[in-house]
Amino acid sequence: xxDSVGIVTPQKWVFEEPITLSSGAVLPRYELMVETYGELNxxxxxxxxxxxxxxxxxxxxxxxxxxDKAPGWWDSMIGPGKPIDTNRFxxxxxxxxxxxHGSTGPSSINPATGEPYGSAFPVVLVRDWxxxxxxxxxxxxxxxxxxxxGGSLGGMQALRWSITYPERIRHALVIASAPxxxxxxxxxxxVARQAILTDPEFHGGxxxxxxxxxxxxxxxxxxxxxxxxxxxxxxxxxxxxxxRTGEYQYGFDVEFEIESYLRYQGDKFANVFDANTYLxxxxxxxYFDPARHYGGSLAxxxxxxxxxxxVVSFTTDWRFAPARSREIVxxxxxxxxxxxxxxxxxxxxxxxxxMQDAPYxxxxxAYLNNVAKELV
Amino acid sequence: xxDSVGIVTPQKWVFEEPITLSSGAVLPRYELMVETYGELNxxxxxxxxxxxxxxxxxxxxxxxxxxDKAPGWWDSMIGPGKPIDTNRFxxxxxxxxxxxHGSTGPSSINPATGEPYGSAFPVVLVRDWxxxxxxxxxxxxxxxxxxxxGGSLGGMQALRWSITYPERIRHALVIASAPxxxxxxxxxxxVARQAILTDPEFHGGxxxxxxxxxxxxxxxxxxxxxxxxxxxxxxxxxxxxxxRTGEYQYGFDVEFEIESYLRYQGDKFANVFDANTYLxxxxxxxYFDPARHYGGSLAxxxxxxxxxxxVVSFTTDWRFAPARSREIVxxxxxxxxxxxxxxxxxxxxxxxxxMQDAPYxxxxxAYLNNVAKELV
Lengths: 376, 376
Fold this sequence. Notes:
Two copies of one chain form a homodimer.
Chain A: E1 11-15, E2 19-20, E3 26-27, E4 30-37, E5 47-51, E6 78-79, E7 84-85, E8 90-94, E9 109-110, E10 115-116, H1 126-140, E11 147-151, H2 153-164, E12 171-175, H3 183-197, H4 215-229, H5 232-238, H6 257-272, H7 275-287, H8 298-302, E13 308-314, H9 322-334, E14 339-344, H10 358-373
Helix pairs in contact in A: 1-2, 3-4, 3-7, 4-6
Function (chains A, B): Transfers a succinyl group from succinyl-CoA to L-homoserine, forming succinyl-L-homoserine.
Protein name (chains A, B): Homoserine O-succinyltransferase
Subcellular location (chains A, B): Cytoplasm
């Protein structure tokens, strides 16, 4: 298709310099799995970094082989002529440190032991990801990103970029995100974590050596997660109280279609995702709170930033409701920063940031069109 | 205390007549654990039935021993001079069939095998509970209840009473309830069930014979349930992002106070509640849909009723939001029935029906005062 970036090949970047993480833990070396689309221009001013959310990775657009059935996870947004236009921008996708898609993470071999890291892999914070992404930018010779863009946990990375490296980012696009988790957000994460941690096959995180996978726990975590990604109304429209067989079965097998959907999603995820990575990602969410080092003032935190902002929320998102995005907008205004805000009508709940609601696509296209115009 | 019903003693009622359940399954005999408070008047017109919710039971008010630290689960509502005034009403609490507090349930001995029922215990619907409660009323010589009252799943029983036995109930008090579950409600229930069903110690429901309990699954189910019982705001006010130690720990032990609270609640529950009963209760919730046999029209279902109704909802309840109560009210109005409706401002979410917000207590007191006045 003419609007696809086509066949893409991920590259592994090796960083032999040790990194000291926020927790104090040190990784002596690490690797990042990366994909890029489009061409970096002569003055290296057209680079856009895409930050992924909980279960995302570096494969953001295009296909790995001609036989691939599904493209990268944000293919709707990225490609020639798409809102993030690869004819104009050089787009970078990276699997975050701690991930399970090729970057160094809990399932990678720990050079100190010759075994998978497992429980020895340190907790990673959003700021640690930003640090590794900045080192990647150094390698690519990118001094300043045209934009850093992310949805959900990805939006938190864009926010953190704007605070930690104000000179290195011209625009931050923060979509379906929040300045920190609510108590309820943390509570859901903890149930998901407890499902994994108490799975007998988790083995304290060192299940790799036992030849098993804590599939039950990961499946439950994903099922629960899915409920929070969808809106009550959207779920109702799609599944309602539809029965699998049309009649009550009076048992514990699949009865309602929604059960079938959730169990399928849980099973699928449990077969491919790493349980330790899931734990790490949820902790990064819990810990994110940029106001924390500024006396609890998000406005003070945002005063560090020099970027311009686009903040986007979705009406039926109850995981990170529009009110959470408005907190970010208010802090930016209080800090005298430039911010555009769009609250998009959508039935897709939190997942809307991955969907193609026309008003959303139009907002993204218009904003990034202006970002492109700044390029000479 | 002068407003307590004092020390009460539960009674076990034995029903030797078989009961055919909605599923078609037959129980040859069953027992119900019952408590009563106050005195049945001469014409037996002052009886009030209290229906319990998911984890409730017959012990609704008072204490079992002088050493008891906590009274019955609705002691705030029931007693001399309280809204449900035991000086005027004869109040009945009953542990529902399938329960785990003395009534016949999955942990009871199956007469056919001499072993606990376990997986052989049939699914029970709200209408089945109403049937067993009606038989209990027959035994007590109660032809007509002054009121049937319940919160959440208990409210569904009150609704069902009004439809199935219109002549036997003068008032139905339906609190923090819903006319049927939404897709999201079912989805949460299914995650809870899957946590139990996939616990290796569940043994297909026959864990009793293995000398184990599916504690991990039940604990997760309860943790998840608790999130849906509390409001996001109320949880935020109580726990916020408060850290156990004041500092990030960068690990998977308790970090935030909310985690400590949820895990404690989960552990406590898993030590006392029966996993099979939990499964049954969630299925009863899923199946409840009185409109189903009236062409999907709740108004048509409610047209069967002769009772007067009080419907109560709480502003921050997102498990059964006020909109769900308003569906009931609208159906009752469409059916030309008499209904009072109170939407109570509360921070307590779904749990508010067990709390003592003054406006709520006042509404209950005023309504039941009028119910008492009808008694000669």
